[in-house]
């Protein structure tokens, strides 16, 4: 009878230990998942702050400051080249990053500087509709936040003194889209010149409503012409092996001619572009600065980021907000997996045996070397 009770007691103890191990494993897995897939975005993005702008007072009052987010090159995968696991992982990363940024930073407007989709030129009508639906889910936003996208079709418009240009249409070959884009740019140039009283009284301005007096911010996908990224610096610049590769006009950057036209027509105070997936700051003729915005996706770089801008009609300040690094998340998962293995081996009392086996093998190897 005593032996039976002792056996039942041992069996209960084993079950308790096994249940305890399962609970520990489950708790660790849940904790790591919650941190790597949710909390790490809050931890990283909450440290970003809007850049400070000197107080602007005009006409007896303080000018309101617009808070704008700029991101680029999300490259949502399609049905042709996109593996389901790659799509799930990278799109979840962008969705969590974007939603967390909206929650912490509360921008008034968000601009995405092109390459929203990776397979737009190959997609069928149904595939395109599915991709658009996924994009709208990932980048959902409150009604008071405006989302503006620089896309591949003809898209030129205004928003708070911004000029969004479909730079893909600036080939200069006389195509229908290109001719229309140039005509609209020339009209925008005329309105900007009239707002700055550069052609007043010449008969070109007419009596229509004029734009506010403000040099625009130029937003486009392709960067303005530059020879390469050789002079770009920073932790999110192009890697050293790519910096000195010459850029191809109309492929990597706009042509020299198209770039000169945009600078001449619009006379922007700032240019923001994407496409290269890497950061770069360039000073163009006339002292016009351009900032290439890095990719927002882990698929294109380990350290994605976005730009935060505080803007008025006459001034601006920019800062960069980095997202969690992909290798940091992978390292945490690897470390957690290793810890789980150690915990399981220790539970089944295999750890000491493994250490002893390893020590014996090491001693045997040393003995052979001496012989």
Question: Can you describe what's shown?
Answer:
The structure is a single chain. Helix 1 packs across helix 2. Strand 1 and strand 2 (61-62) form a beta hairpin. With 371 residues, this protein is of the alpha/beta class. It contains eight helices and 13 strands. The longest helix has 44 residues, at 2-45. Strands 6-7-8-9-11-10 form a six-stranded mixed sheet, with no helix packed on it. The chain has a five-stranded mixed sheet with strand order 5-4-3-12-13, with no helix packed on it.
Strand tally is 13
**Lateral strand order in the biggest sheet:** 6-7-8-9-11-10
The portion of residues forming beta strands comes to 15-25%
Helical coverage, percent range: 40-55%
What is the residue-mean pLDDT, rounded to a whole number? 81
Evaluate the radius of gyration: 28 Å
N-to-C terminal Cα separation, in Å?
60 Å
Classification by helices and strands? alpha/beta
User: In one word, what is the shape?
Assistant: elongated
User: Total helix count?
Assistant: 8
Give the assembly state of these chains. Answer: single chain
Give a short account of the largest sheet: 6 strands, mixed
Low confidence ranges: 152-160
Order of helices and strands: HEEEHEHEEEHEHHEEEEEHH
């Amino acid at each position: 009878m005593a032996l039976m009770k002792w056996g039942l007691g041992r069996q209960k103890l084993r079950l308790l230990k096994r249940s305890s191990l399962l609970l520990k494993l489950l708790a660790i897995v849940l904790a790591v998942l919650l941190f790597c897939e949710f909390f790490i975005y809050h931890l990283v993005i909450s440290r970003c702050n809007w850049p400070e702008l000197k107080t602007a007072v005009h006409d007896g009052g303080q000018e309101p400051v617009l808070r704008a987010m700029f991101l680029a090159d999300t490259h949502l995968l399609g049905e042709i080249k996109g593996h389901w696991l790659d799509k799930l992982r990278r799109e979840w990363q962008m969705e969590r990053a974007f939603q967390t940024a909206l929650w912490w930073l509360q921008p008034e407007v968000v601009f995405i500087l092109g390459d929203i989709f990776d397979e737009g030129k190959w997609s069928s009508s149904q595939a395109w509709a599915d991709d658009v639906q996924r994009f709208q889910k990932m980048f959902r936003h409150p009604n008071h936040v405006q989302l503006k996208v620089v896309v591949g079709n003809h898209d030129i418009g205004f928003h708070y003194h911004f000029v969004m240009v479909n730079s893909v249409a600036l080939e200069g070959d006389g195509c229908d889209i290109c001719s229309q884009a140039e005509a609209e740019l020339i009209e925008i140039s005329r309105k900007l010149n009239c707002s700055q009283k550069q052609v007043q009284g010449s008969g070109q301005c007419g009596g229509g409503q004029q734009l506010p007096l403000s040099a625009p911010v130029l937003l486009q996908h392709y960067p303005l012409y530059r020879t390469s990224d050789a002079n770009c610096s920073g932790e999110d610049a192009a890697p050293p092996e790519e910096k000195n590769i010459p850029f191809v006009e109309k492929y990597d950057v706009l042509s020299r001619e198209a770039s000169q036209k945009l600078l001449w027509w619009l006379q922007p105070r700032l240019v923001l572009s994407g496409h290269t997936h890497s950061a770069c700051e360039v000073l163009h003729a006339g002292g016009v600065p351009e900032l290439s915005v890095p990719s927002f996706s882990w698929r294109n770089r380990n350290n994605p980021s976005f730009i935060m801008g505080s803007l008025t009609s006459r001034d601006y300040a920019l800062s960069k907000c980095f997202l969690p690094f992909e290798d940091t998340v992978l390292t945490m998962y690897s470390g957690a997996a290793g810890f789980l293995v150690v915990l399981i081996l220790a539970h089944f009392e295999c750890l000491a045996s493994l250490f002893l086996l390893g020590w014996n093998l090491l001693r045997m190897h040393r003995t052979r070397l001496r012989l």
